[in-house]
Every structure is written in C-alpha cells, then in structure tokens.
Amino acid sequence: MLNKYARAFFTRVLTPFAAFLLRRGVSPDAVTLIGTAGVVAGALVFFPRGEFFWGTITITLFVFSDLVDGNMARQAGISSRWGAFLDSTLDRVADAAIFGGLALWYAGSGDDNALCAVAIFCLASGQVVSYTKARGESIGLPVAVNGLVERAERLVISLVAAGLSGLQTFGAPSWLGVLLPVALWAVAAGSLVTLIQRVVTVRREAAEADAAAAAAEGGAA
Ligand SMILES: CCCCCCCC/C=C\CCCCCCCC(=O)OC[C@H](COP(=O)(O)O[C@@H]1[C@H](O)[C@H](OP(=O)(O)O)[C@@H](O)[C@H](O)[C@H]1O)OC(=O)CCCCCCC/C=C\CCCCCCCC
Ligand SMILES: Nc1ccn([C@@H]2O[C@H](COP(=O)(O)O)[C@@H](O)[C@H]2O)c(=O)n1
Ligand SMILES: [Mg+2]
Ligand SMILES: [Mg+2]
C-alpha cells in the first residue's frame, strides 16, 4: 500500500537530491552500498544495546537511499539488471540487520525469549515473503499480488515503534515501551498473511500457466 501511494510523493521530494548526487558524480550503486552499510551499522550498533532512538534515527537517515538509488538510475537513464539485483539483494541484508538487531536486544539485556523469537520470525518471514515474488517471477509468472505487509510497511511499523519506544531514554512515559512488542507481533502476523496471499497467488498462476502450456502442446500434437 505504501509502495503504491507513498512512492510518488517521495519520488517528487527526493528527485532534486538524486539530481544533485548525479551532478557530483556519485553513482546509484554507491548510494545503494553506502545506504545499506549505514542501515546495517545503525541496526547492529544501537539496537542490541537497547538504544532504539539513535538506532532508528541512523537507520531512517540511510534507509531512504533505497528510494534515491533507483531515482538516480532512472534520471540518468542507466537503470540496469545489475542495479536491480544489487538493490534487492542489499534490501535483504538491511532487513536482516534491523530485525537481527532487535532479536539480539531481546536475547541479551532485553531478556525476553518470546520477543526474541518474534523478531526472528519477522526477519525470516520478511525474507521469505520477498523470495516468493523473486522466485515466482524467475519461473515466468506475473505474481500479481503485493499483499498486506510489504517491505515498506514492515520498516515503517517497526521503525516508528522503535523510535517512539526510544524516547523513554529522554524521559517520555514508560507506556511507550509497549509499542515495539506490539509492532513486532503486528509485523509477524502481517508477514504471515502476506506469505499466504503470495503462495496462493503463485499456486493459481502456476496452475493456469501449466494448463495453458499443456493445451498448447495438445494443440500442436
Ligand atoms: C520523535 C521522533 C521519534 C522517532 C522518529 C523516528 C521516525 C522514523 C520512523 C520511521 C521511518 C521509516 C522510514 C522507512 C522508509 C522505507 C523506505 C524504503 O526503503 O522503502 C523501500 C520500499 C521498497 O523498495 P524496493 O522496490 O527497492 O524494494 C523491493 C521490495 O523490498 C520487495 O520486498 P517485498 O515488498 O516483496 O517484501 C522485494 O521483493 C524487491 O526485491 C525489492 O526490490 O520502497 C517503497 O515502498 C516506497 C515507499 C516508501 C514509503 C516510506 C514511507 C515513510 C513514511 C513515513 C515515515 C515517517 C514517519 C514518521 C513517524 C514519526 C513518529 C514520531
Ligand atoms: N544501484 C541501482 C539501484 C537501483 N537501480 C534501478 O532502480 C530500480 C529500483 O528502484 P527503487 O526506486 O526501488 O530504488 C531497480 O529495479 C533498477 O532498475 C539501478 O539501476 N541501480
Ligand atoms: Mg532502491
Ligand atoms: Mg530496494
């Protein structure tokens, strides 16, 4: 949903910055790599120590590079298969660091095995949700479904909750601490629903494609 409705807005906002980087000779690949490195560092330095505010601020600063790199490539007319591969592959790395960082917190000083397991579920299910689309498309299916919780939703829900929860460090009320657990459960449940939506779609599309191929073979024989 965010991908559908918010992307156009962020494209307008980020286009001048993307143009500025191109003028300075920065490549889209460099933005992809530096953005991912920033997200990974923010997630793995701050989250395992429970420093959710600074972790979220750092990640947020760098995660928008994922919208800037493609914008730069399109403006410069240099969108490439390699760029698409690099972008998607490093998205998986960034997501693993974010939910991995949260899992490390709950496994350590956060001391909550159940939430550690939920964070690991968010990490794994997010990767599988993305894989369903990549694999479906690689076998020639349209995978004409995005589902309830795409990557943008996973990130916004988790990061808004982590950022607000981190405000407790500055004296904000302690009830804010409940937001992160609620967000993780919501992302876990939403990812499961999304996974089912995508698997059902791929199963239907695969059956239709196989039936069409069999009919074409029968006609030719
Ligand atoms: C007082 C302060 C308190 C704390 C402050 C913290 C505030 C910050 C909180 C949140 C900010 C979150 C920002 C998250 C931005 C996410 C941007 C992003 O990277 O989106 C990526 C997404 C997908 O891009 P791709 O096409 O490159 O990726 C594809 C995708 O990954 C597919 O995965 P799948 O969906 O299938 O699982 C893969 O299949 C595919 O391979 C891959 O290529 O881009 C978009 O979706 C575009 C839309 C982005 C919309 C961002 C909306 C941000 C909205 C609000 C943020 C501000 C909220 C402020 C809250 C303040 C709270 C006090
Ligand atoms: N280094 C890169 C990164 C991206 N691309 C192209 O942009 C598409 C992704 O667009 P986003 O707005 O989601 O970043 C991707 O599929 C590539 O076509 C690129 O060429 N090089
Ligand atoms: Mg990108
Ligand atoms: Mg991306």
Automatic annotation (TrEMBL):
Pathway: Lipid metabolism; Phospholipid metabolism; phosphatidylinositol phosphate biosynthesis
Cofactor note (record): Contains a di-nuclear catalytic Mg(2+) center.
Residues noted as binding Mg(2+) 1 in the record, renumbered to the chain: 66, 69, 87
Record PROSITE patterns: CDP_ALCOHOL_P_TRANSF
Location of the active site: 91
Keyword vocabulary terms for this entry: Cell membrane, Lipid biosynthesis, Lipid metabolism, Magnesium, Membrane, Metal-binding, Phospholipid biosynthesis, Phospholipid metabolism, Transferase, Transmembrane, Transmembrane helix
Membrane spanning residue stretches: 178-196
Sites where the protein binds a CDP-1,2-diacyl-sn-glycerol: 29-32, 70, 74, 80
Assembly notes: Homodimer.
Name assigned to this protein: Phosphatidylinositol phosphate synthase
